[in-house]
């Protein structure tokens, strides 16, 4: 490794300054001298790192920065070693055993270090440790530790290194990257020679298999996708460690010492080597900046760091994309490049060195070549069950083959030969306007997108090679695009591909227990092609200044005819894209017991076919957002909305008068309680207002009846009960308590203190002044017993809060501070007051940045405003929360006065933003008729 062009430290001056601190008598160092020496070294290290950060900001060269920091570390170690052997532990006539070489290993052995990297050292001995060697090593290590460095170290003889390298792949890799630092150089030369002859020789396939398996395990631990929106720069898929793995394998297998030698070995072309270097340089720049910014070895680009990193690296905002989103898009494009280079490298290994090595065969699918023809094609062949090209000019002679190869792979369920994918990537220039308008190419592509097999797998290969973005330019615009949001776990293109995969999963009848309705209705969908195309395009307009649903529908109207869809199919695709968020939004943030909600939603659906397609698309879309985003509660809400809407769009509903429906509900409840004494039964049925009778299903009414009856018998005016709803992934806590204007607010506050996330609330009052509130909280434990125990504790906390023994405001205030990743986000607060969404209620929708105790604050203000809450619906989308309340005034009518609506908006916005407002006198909550 060459010395960096801009050094950070004057080695000679530092050595002279250290020597000046030595006493007249060699062999000892006073405490004062050691303190002075430590201060000198610390200042040199601090100055050097500050200079490295300045140079990085000025020239942006990440690899150079890593080399400069490594050189700085080299100098410190050399100076400390020289001082130790000259002034502390001098030996006039050293024996053959009193020799020591200091060797850099691991990443430090490559001559690159990040500011927070570990310093990995091997103290190399000729054959055994001596008191002199032990003392020198101890002196060096203690000084390095006192400098605040994380030092990984081992003290071994050459023979020990060879023996351990044979059995331990981690030690073998460390020795592979060993670099002489200082001391007895012949010792290191001996290690290199013996390692090459006694360890490396003949073991290339074994090493490759181990490193690739190790890489796969690392990817699994970090998250299998390279498009996670909070990537690990070092260990994540597409990160620095992937590049290092390539170099380890190259150095071991080809016995080269530099990236440049990979060109001579025929592994990479000159252009591909330049790509390797650009990727490495960018990733090193990001990693070094990350360490400088956090002052620690932080490897994950979390949301709270991405904004500052974008500024440090000089990114600016563009229309539709924030500066941080442009930075992260560049990051993911680099991660994709790393994947391309890995594929090219593995292809070269297979082509030239794969035949004799069984271990490598298992990982890369190598072995004796078995070739056969593909029916109906002369341009492609099957080689070892993988599709490959039959000649060198397959794509140049017919560019449609750039689509056909993927179509054939899907049709015959074939993997791709690495050479074929490499040739595809090198032929992207052939994808031009003529190919995009080619009827055959578009027909083949449509069949790929709507394949009955595994369209996600083939589309992912098209995306990795760059074909997808070139053939569908609008898709190319969202490749590697991230959305700066905690809700979205993947880049836009990754989300679209995953949504196709989940759609195919539903069609194949998989995971029916998680989404039974979607699996049930899919076979009845008349035009599955329309659904797949809509799924593929639903987020294709992300990153534009306008609403992506509207812009996406416009793209669909332009693109679908090109793909061969009819005008009717095109219209349906565009409709699905334009409304792809409607079902999710309605289900999660509207009162599904409100008739107006269903009628308004049905008016948009227009037909049962569109309702079916939108349900399936919505399920796949939510599941593709990221792990844990889909849950049973969302599934239940979607099913309820579907079942309530289906009879409306099919014309099978009958509008029975409200009074008649109330009477029928009373009679039905009375019949269900037939084993109660008649007087008690009749009295209980009369305790409930019509709203309760119409909105609550019979099983829950029966459960409530038994719960209230037990409370009455125990003469308890305050009681709670819990029910774990496993399938919906929520737990329901029912509170029976004297009605109170702040009741829901107190319940929300207690849940906040308990760390319970409320997703829904149904509020009812009995005719005798008792409240019956049902709160649904997100499930925390898989085991019902554990969940029941946890929910019971929450219920107990609610009781304490209602009894006044729990001091809530102080505890909630402590939790209300935005912490961690939330600090990175800024979400505009919006408060909407709408009288058109319900015939009975005014609907208040409050949206903005989430925080602990928010629902408590909002419900307290609503109570202060003398409003009665009939139901509350809470939806969280990462850092953004949408809280919806169905309210009336205390007489049970809507809020129509403009000045009062303005006051509601003003007060709720202040509560959302945490700004003080004047308190209004709370009034008693009443149940609307």
TrEMBL record:
Keywords: Hydrolase, Magnesium, Multifunctional enzyme, Nucleotidyltransferase, Repeat, Transferase. InterPro entries: ACT-like_dom_sf, ACT_dom, HD/PDEase_dom, HD_domain, NT_sf, PII_UdlTrfase/GS_AdlTrfase, Polymerase_NTP_transf_dom, UTase/UR. Uridylyltransferase (UTase) activity is inhibited by glutamine, while glutamine activates uridylyl-removing (UR) activity. GO terms for biological process: regulation of nitrogen utilization. Pfam families: ACT_ACR9_3rd (PF24931), GlnD_UR_UTase (PF08335), HD (PF01966), NTP_transf_2 (PF01909). It catalyses: [protein-PII]-uridylyl-L-tyrosine + H2O = [protein-PII]-L-tyrosine + UMP + H(+); [protein-PII]-L-tyrosine + UTP = [protein-PII]-uridylyl-L-tyrosine + diphosphate. HAMAP family: PII_uridylyl_transf (MF_00277). Belongs to the GlnD family. This is Bifunctional uridylyltransferase/uridylyl-removing enzyme. It comes from Bauldia litoralis. The lineage of its organism: Bacteria, Pseudomonadati, Pseudomonadota, Alphaproteobacteria, Hyphomicrobiales. The gene is glnD.
């Amino acid at each position: 490794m060459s010395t960096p062009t801009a050094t950070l430290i004057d080695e000679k001056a530092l050595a002279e300054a250290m020597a000046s601190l030595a006493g007249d008598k060699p062999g000892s160092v006073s405490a004062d001298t050691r303190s002075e020496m430590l201060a000198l070294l610390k200042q040199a290290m601090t100055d050097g790192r500050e200079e490295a950060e300045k140079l990085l900001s000025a020239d942006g060269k990440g690899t150079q920065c890593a080399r400069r920091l490594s050189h700085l570390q080299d100098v410190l170690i050399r100076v400390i070693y020289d001082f130790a052997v000259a002034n502390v532990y001098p030996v006039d006539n050293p024996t053959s055993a009193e020799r020591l070489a200091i060797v850099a290993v691991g990443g430090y052995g490559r001559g690159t270090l990040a500011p927070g990297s570990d310093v990995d050292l091997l103290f190399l001995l000729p054959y055994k440790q001596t008191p002199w060697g032990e003392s020198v090593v101890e002196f060096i290590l203690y000084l390095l530790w006192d400098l605040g460095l994380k030092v990984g170290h081992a003290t071994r003889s050459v023979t020990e290194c060879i023996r351990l390298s044979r059995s331990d792949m981690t030690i073998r890799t460390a020795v592979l990257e060993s670099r002489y630092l200082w001391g007895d150089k012949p010792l290191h030369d001996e290690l290199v020679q013996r390692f090459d002859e006694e360890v490396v020789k003949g073991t290339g396939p074994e090493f490759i298999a181990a490193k690739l398996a190790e890489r796969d395990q690392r990817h699994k631990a970090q998250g299998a996708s390279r498009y996670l929106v909070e990537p690990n720069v070092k260990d994540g898929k597409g990160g620095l460690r992937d590049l290092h793995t390539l170099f380890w394998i190259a150095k071991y297998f080809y016995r080269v010492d530099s990236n440049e030698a990979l060109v001579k070995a025929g592994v990479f072309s000159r252009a591909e080597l330049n790509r390797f270097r650009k990727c490495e340089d960018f990733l090193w720049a990001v990693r070094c900046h990350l360490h400088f910014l956090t002052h620690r070895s932080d490897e994950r680009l979390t949301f709270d760091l991405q904004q500052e990193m974008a500024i440090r690296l000089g990114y600016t905002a563009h229309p539709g994309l924030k500066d941080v989103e442009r930075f992260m898009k560049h990051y993911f494009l680099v991660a994709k490049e790393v994947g391309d280079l890995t594929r090219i490298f593995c292809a070269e290994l297979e082509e030239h060195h794969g035949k004799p090595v069984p271990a490598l065969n298992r990982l890369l699918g190598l072995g004796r070549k078995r070739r056969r023809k593909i029916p109906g094609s002369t341009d492609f062949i099957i080689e070892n069950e993988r599709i490959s090209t039959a000649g060198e000019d397959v794509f140049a002679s017919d560019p449609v083959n750039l689509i056909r190869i993927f179509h054939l792979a899907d049709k015959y369920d074939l993997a791709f030969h690495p050479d074929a994918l490499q040739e595809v990537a090198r032929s992207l220039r052939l994808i031009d306007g003529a190919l995009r308008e080619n009827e055959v190419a578009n027909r083949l592509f449509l069949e790929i997108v709507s394949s009955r097999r595994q369209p996600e797998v083939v589309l992912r290969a098209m995306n990795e090679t760059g074909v997808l973005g070139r053939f569908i330019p609008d898709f190319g615009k969202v490749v590697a695009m991230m959305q700066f949001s905690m809700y979205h776990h993947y880049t836009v293109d990754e989300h679209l591909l995953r949504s196709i995969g989940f759609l195919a999963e539903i069609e194949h009848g998989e995971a029916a227990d998680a989404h039974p309705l979607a699996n049930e209705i899919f076979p009845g969908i008349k035009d599955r092609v329309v659904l797949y195309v809509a799924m593929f395009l639903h987020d294709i307009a992300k990153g534009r200044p306008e609403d992506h649903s509207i812009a996406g529908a416009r793209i669909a109207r332009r693109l679908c005819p090109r793909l061969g869809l009819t005008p009717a199919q095109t219209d349906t695709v565009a409709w699905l894209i334009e409304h792809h968020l409607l079902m999710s939004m309605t289900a999660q943030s509207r009162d599904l017991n409100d008739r107006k909600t269903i009628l308004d939603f049905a008016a948009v659906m227009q037909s049962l076919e569109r309702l079916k397609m939108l349900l399936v698309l919505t399920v796949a879309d939510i599941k593709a957002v990221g792990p844990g985003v889909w849950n049973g509660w969302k599934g239940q809400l979607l099913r309820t909305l579907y079942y309530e809407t289906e009879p409306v769009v099919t014309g099978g509903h009958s509008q029975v008068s409200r009074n008649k429906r109330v009477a029928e509900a009373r009679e039905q409840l009375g019949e269900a309680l037939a084993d109660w004494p008649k007087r008690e039964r009749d009295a209980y049925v009369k305790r409930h207002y019509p709203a309760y009778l119409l909105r609550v299903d019979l099983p829950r009414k029966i459960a409530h009846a038994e719960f209230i009856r037990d409370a009455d018998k125990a003469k308890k005016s305050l009681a709670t009960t819990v029910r774990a709803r496993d399938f919906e992934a929520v737990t329901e806590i029912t509170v029976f308590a004297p009605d109170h204007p702040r009741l829901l607010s107190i319940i929300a506050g207690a849940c906040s203190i308990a760390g319970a996330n409320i997703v829904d609330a149904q509020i009812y009052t009995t005719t005798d002044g008792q409240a019956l509130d049902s709160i649904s909280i997100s499930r925390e434990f898989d085991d019902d017993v554990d969940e029941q125990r946890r929910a019971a504790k929450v219920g107990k906390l609610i009781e304490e809060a209602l009894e006044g023994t729990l001091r809530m405001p102080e505890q909630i205030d402590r939790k209300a501070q935005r912490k961690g990743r939330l600090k990175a986000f800024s979400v505009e607060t919006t408060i909407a007051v709408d009288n058109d969404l319900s015939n009975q209620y005014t609907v208040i929708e409050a949206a903005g940045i989430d925080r602990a105790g928010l629902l408590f604050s909002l419900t307290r203000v609503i109570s202060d405003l003398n409003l009665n809450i009939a139901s509350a619906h809470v939806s969280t989308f990462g850092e953004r929360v949408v809280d919806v309340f169905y309210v009336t005034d205390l007489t049970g009518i809507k809020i129509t006065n403009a000045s009062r609506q303005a006051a509601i908006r003003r007060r709720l916005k202040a509560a959302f933003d945490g700004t003080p407002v004047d308190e209004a006198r709370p009034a008693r909550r009443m149940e609307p008729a």
